[in-house]
Structures are given as structure tokens and as C-alpha cells.
Amino acid sequence: MPQFPAYRPRRLRRTAALRRLVRETTLQPSQLVLPLFVRSGAGIRQPVESMAGVAQTSVDEMLEDASEAAGLGVGGVLLFGIPDRKDATGSEAWNDEAPVQQAVRALKRELPELVVITDVCLCEYTEHGHCGVIKNGDVDNDETLELLAREAVSHARAGADIVAPSDMMDGRVRAIRAALDGDGFTNTPILSYAAKFAGPFYGPFRDAAESVPRFGDRRSYQMDSGNADEALREVWLDIEEGADMVMVKPAGPFLDVIQRVKAETGYPLAAYQVSGEYAMIQAAADRGWIDRERVMMDSLLGIRRAGADVVITYFARAAARLLASGAA
Ligand code: PBG
Fold this sequence. Notes:
This protein is of the alpha/beta class.
């Protein structure tokens, strides 16, 4: 490598045009996915207090948000449902008339080009708020698989472009793949939340999705924050079971995991900048302590630089808008 003074790294930093020319990592609206929370009714827009700019909406209002996102070139949306009623098994999850299924049909009708991803999990649908059925005080893995498979098939039947299981049960990708194939949905891809870490960063989301566990926590199924080798095993397991894309979540605190998963698997990789990451930036920006737009863009670029192909973020529209304005 050449040495100073022959090599002066500052030469290529002198103008915005030069910096743009040699930038290694780029962020495109098409690489962003916007999470949306849908509930039944009409004309409903209920703001989520801990997530400025995020709301639970009815399907009609959701279409407004999705169409704005599509107009900005955002790559896709990720749907979460808030059901009218919850029960022990989360049976609204596979009701073909529930909010998510209706939202998928409406989106495929109105905005056919926008990629529609559905979150497949039971925590929004169970009265206890856990991601599976409870037996002897714990989430029963094997009995949950069949229910997740039903939910995924119901989403595929509604027209989902991709189903994304986020429950962290062992073997769920295989169960969902088999169920989809059995019902003729051989072309519906699975994006598995493969390395999903348990922890405090999901706090605001649980308000948004009304999925706070009524007892205990999710540490018996989501991963321990210290484990990167295990994350790789989780990812390989899901790939072997048939995942088409994998996810690391949260994103910011797990950039090393994103980097390793991309380097070691080469699979299409999504990273989820979760509710807590979003809320921290919004809260600090609201107080004037940081520059909202620049911190937003740096946080997203960092996730891309680590190796994520797709970034799931509540900032999707704001980031796409900024990119379109040429200011980022
Ligand atoms: C459902 C699910 C969660 C998130 C995505 N899917 C919550 C959880 O596991 O408790 C979190 C997303 C976010 O925090 O933005 N299991």
C-alpha cells in the first residue's frame, strides 16, 4: 500500500461529487421494506405512542400508506395484523377474512407491483401473547408448527408474495414449506427470521402489535444476545429447511452477525431495524440532540454496509423521500 505523502486519502473526499463517485455502499428505496400494522374497520388511524409516525390502521388507510411508499419506490411492505379477538391458539391467524388477509388482497389489487410480505407468528393472536401454544407453562414447539403452517397457507392464499415466520420455533420453515407445497404454493418464497435475538429492543413494537406476553418472556425461543456462532447454525438450519431469504434481527446491535451471515452463506439477507432502534433515534431527534435525517441515513447505510441486501425499517418512507430529494 502506498504511503503518505504519495497517498492522501483526503484527495477523494474533497467534493460531494467525488465522495459520491467512490462510495462503496449505496442505499436504494427498492432495498427498503416498510412494516405496517392493520386492524379491522374503516377510516381508522391510531398512532402508536412510542413510535412517532407509526400507526395501526384499517385496510383503507393502510392502502394510503402503502401507495405513498410504492410511489417513493420503496421495495415492499411487511404486514402485521391486530385481530378482533384473541384465543389460546391464536386461531384468527389463519382466518381468511382477518385484517392481514384482507390487506394482502387489497394490496395485490391496488398496487400489484409492491412486494407484500406477511409476518407469520402467533403472538398478536394469542391471549397470552406468546408466539405459540402453551403447554405446562411453556411454548410447545411441535404443536405450534401446524398452526404456523396454517397461517402461512392462509397468507399465501390471500396472495402474499413472501411469508416471513418470526416465531423462532424449531422446524417451522420445513413445516411451512411442506404446507405451502402441499396446497400448490410452490412459488411462494419464505423469508425466515432466522437469527432473531430476544431482548428489550422490541418494546415499542409490542405496544403497536398489542403482543406483550402476559407472563414470562421470549427467552425460551428467541436467541441469547451473546451468540453469533449459534446464529449461523440457526441460519443454516433454516436454509436447509427451505428458506429462500434469511433475516437478522435486531439490526444495529447485531451488525457482526449480519456480516457473518452474508459472508458465510451468500444468501439473500434482510435485516430488521426494529422498533426500539427507531424509537431511540426519534426520541433523541425530538429533543434536538441529534440530526434526525443524518442519523437515520447513517443507521441504514451501516446495516447495508454490514451485508444486508434488504433493510426492514419504519423509516422506509422518510429515507426514500430523502433519497429522492438528492439530499442524502
Ligand atoms: C413477532 C414479531 C416481533 C417483531 C417482529 N415480529 C415481536 C417480538 O418478537 O416480540 C418485532 C419488531 C420490532 O420490534 O419492530 N414475533
